[in-house]
C-alpha cells in the first residue's frame, strides 16, 4: 500500500490523514498487501504525512489525534504549547482532504480567470496560525518550527490571493469594475510581501535550488545550461512549456521575479479588455506569456542561498497586515464549485489554461485536479 502525495514536488499543505489511517489496515486484511511505501515525485513538503504513513509499517496508531500529539512533541523536542492546537486544527481541515488533489495554488498557475476550489474551510487556518505564533517565544529558535510557521503563513497568504482572485472574477462578471484595479494592486503587493516572508527560511529559497544545480556542472561553460534546466523544471517543464507549472514552487525569488511579472502582465491585458470592451483573447495572452516566462529562464540573476530576516517577525507582520482582508474574504465568499459556472468567458472560449499539466494530472487514476 503506497501513498502518492504529489506530482512534481509541488508545494502546498495537503494530506489525507483519515484515508492514511484507515486504508492500510483494511488492505492488509483484504488483499495480498506486502508492505507500506510512499511514491511521491518530490518529498520536500508535508513531512508530517510521510512520517504518518511510514510509521504504520510497524504499528497502527491508536488514533490520528494521539499520533499527532507525539509527532509534534517529537518534532519540536518539547511540549509545544499552543502549536499543538494549530496542528490539530490543520489535521481536521487542510490535512484531511476527501480525495487526492494537487495542492497547487492559483498563485503559481499561469494567470487565468477561473477561481480556485478548496476542500476545506480556509478560515480555520487563521486560528491555526494564531496558535502557531502563540508558541513562538518558546519554539521560535527551532528550524523545524520556523519552517512550519513560514509554510503555514505562506498557505494562508496563498489562500488570500485566491480569494481576492475570486473576488476579481466576480466583480468582472457582475460588471462592477470600479474596484478591479485596486484589488489587483493588493494582489501584487501580497506577492511581494510573500517573497520577503519566504526569504526568511532556508526551505523556500530559489537561490539554493539554482546553486545546487550549478554544482553539478562539469565546467564553468556548462553552468548556464544547468542553471537554465533548474529554472525550466519548476516553470515550463520543457523548452516551449510542455507541462506548464507542473513542478511549480512558491519560493523567494520566484514570487517577485516570475509570478509577479506574469500576474502584472495578465492584469494589464484584462484591464485593456475591460476598457476597450473587446473580449480577452486568452490564446494570444498564452503566447505572449510564454515569451515572458522564457525570458526569465534565460536571464542571469544571483539569488540568496541563505535566509534573510526573522521568520517569526515576518509571519507576525504578514498576519497583522492582511488579517482584515482574510476575515473579509471569509465573510463574503462562498466555497467555489468546479462546475465552470463561475468562469468568465473569453474570446478563445476558455476562462483558463487547459495545458498539458492538467492533462497529466487527469491521466492518474489516483488524482483529481483542482
Beta strand %: under 5%
| Helix vs. strand class | mainly alpha
The average pLDDT is: 89
Largest sheet: 2 strands, parallel
Which H/E pattern describes the elements? EHEHHHHHHHHHHHHH
Q: Overall 3D geometry?
A: globular
Low-pLDDT ranges: 335-356, 358-370
Radius of gyration: 21 Å
Helix content: 40-55%
Count every helix, treating DSSP H or I runs of 4 or more residues as helices: 14
User: How far is it from the N-terminal to the C-terminal residue, by CA?
Assistant: 25 Å
In quaternary terms, these chains amount to single chain
Characterization of this structure:
- The protein has helices at 17-30, 47-55, 64-76, 83-92, 125-134, 136-139, 143-173, 180-198, 206-215, 223-233, 254-276, 282-298, 311-332, 356-362, and strands at residues 2-3, 37-38.
- With 370 residues, the chain is mostly helical.
- It has a two-stranded parallel ribbon.
- The protein is globular, with a radius of gyration of 21 Å.
Amino acid at each position: 500500500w503506497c501513498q502518492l502525495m504529489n506530482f512534481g514536488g509541488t508545494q502546498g499543505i495537503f494530506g489525507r490523514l483519515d484515508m492514511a489511517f484507515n486504508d492500510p489496515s483494511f488492505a492488509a486484511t483484504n488483499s495480498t498487501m506486502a508492505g507500506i511505501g510512499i511514491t511521491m515525485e518530490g518529498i520536500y513538503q508535508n513531512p508530517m504525512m510521510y512520517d504518518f504513513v511510514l510509521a504504520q509499517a510497524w504499528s497502527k496508531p491508536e488514533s490520528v489525534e494521539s499520533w499527532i500529539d507525539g509527532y509534534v512533541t517529537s518534532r519540536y523536542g518539547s511540549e509545544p504549547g499552543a502549536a499543538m492546537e494549530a496542528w490539530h486544527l490543520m489535521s481536521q481541515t487542510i490535512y484531511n482532504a476527501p480525495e487526492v488533489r494537487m495542492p497547487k495554488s492559483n498563485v503559481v498557475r499561469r494567470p487565468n480567470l477561473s477561481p480556485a476550489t478548496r476542500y476545506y474551510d480556509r478560515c480555520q487556518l487563521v486560528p491555526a496560525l494564531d496558535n502557531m505564533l502563540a508558541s513562538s517565544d518558546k519554539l521560535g529558535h527551532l528550524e523545524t518550527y520556523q519552517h512550519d510557521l513560514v509554510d503555514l503563513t505562506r498557505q494562508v497568504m496563498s489562500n488570500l490571493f485566491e480569494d481576492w482572485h475570486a473576488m476579481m472574477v466576480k466583480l468582472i462578471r457582475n460588471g462592477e469594475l470600479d474596484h478591479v484595479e485596486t484589488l489587483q494592486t493588493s494582489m501584487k503587493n501580497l506577492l511581494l510581501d510573500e517573497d520577503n516572508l519566504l526569504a526568511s527560511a532556508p526551505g523556500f529559497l530559489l537561490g539554493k535550488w539554482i546553486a545546487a544545480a550549478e554544482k553539478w556542472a562539469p565546467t564553468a561553460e556548462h553552468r548556464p545550461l544547468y542553471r537554465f534546466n533548474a529554472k525550466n523544471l519548476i516553470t515550463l517543464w520543457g523548452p516551449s512549456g510542455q507541462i506548464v507549472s507542473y513542478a511549480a514552487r512558491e519560493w523567494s525569488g520566484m514570487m517577485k521575479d516570475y509570478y509577479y511579472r506574469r500576474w502584472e502582465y495578465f492584469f494589464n491585458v484584462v484591464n485593456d479588455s475591460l476598457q476597450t470592451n473587446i473580449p480577452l483573447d486568452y490564446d494570444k495572452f498564452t503566447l505572449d506569456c510564454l515569451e515572458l516566462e522564457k525570458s526569465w529562464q534565460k536571464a542571469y540573476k544571483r539569488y540568496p542561498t541563505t535566509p534573510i530576516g526573522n521568520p517569526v517577525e515576518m509571519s507576525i507582520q504578514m498576519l497583522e497586515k492582511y488579517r482584515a482582508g482574510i476575515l473579509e474574504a471569509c465573510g463574503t465568499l462562498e466555497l467555489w464549485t468546479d462546475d465552470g459556472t463561475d468562469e468568465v468567458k473569453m474570446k478563445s472560449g476558455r476562462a483558463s489554461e487547459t495545458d498539458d499539466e492538467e492533462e497529466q494530472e487527469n491521466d492518474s487514476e489516483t488524482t483529481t485536479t483542482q
